[in-house]
Amino acid sequence: MSDLTVERLPPLGMVTIRGELSKIGDAIVGETGCAVPAPRMSERSGERQLLWMSPDELMLVCEYGEAGATADALTARFGDAFATVVNTSDARQVFALSGQHAEDALASLMPVDFARMKAEEVRRTRMAQIPAAIWREGEGWRLICFRSVATYAEDLLRGAKTVGG
Are residues 95 and 81 in the same domain? Predict the structure, then answer.
């Protein structure tokens, strides 16, 4: 039996931003209210969270209904800058994860040292055979994966074992 509580969340807004962050950073801050995060970190402003995904990619997590307008506003702010902004909300599934031994259960599925992850840290990794991103959210975790593999991901999470479990 798993010591991991798994909740499939309703859709969240997700806007993928790609470009030279040093050139578009001010526009990102102006539109989102979030500072551009350092590598493998996140920044918050109210209900919005900006996640570092790679040296040229960020993901804004926001209310589902805001994502389209926010993507359009970012595109307008970037002007002629070489950048791509896409509303990826419908392409991803978000899970809320918690439990007394959640970190052990998650570590059985991912090559991540969860005990060393900082509160604002984001990790892009793999969970068994699928790409995923994970970060702390309060006392628990948030995990995102592609919606096309969400059932597989949920089955993996629900079957995760802890040491001695």
Answer: no
Domain boundaries, position 145: 5-9+91-158
97 and 77 in one domain? no
**CA-angle at 124, arms to 123 and 127, nearest 5°:** 105
pTM, two decimal places: 0.92
Report how far apart, in Å, the C-alpha atoms of 158 and of each of 52, 56, 110 are: 27, 33, 14
In tens, the pLDDT along 58-116 reads: 999 999 999 999 999 999 999 999 999 999 999 999 999 999 888 988 999 999 999 89
- In a 13 Å sphere around the CA of 124, the CA atoms on its Cβ side amount to 14
Question: Nearest to residue 86, comparing CAs of 46, 112, 58, 115?
Answer: 58
Last residue of a domain, one of 89, 114, 147: 89
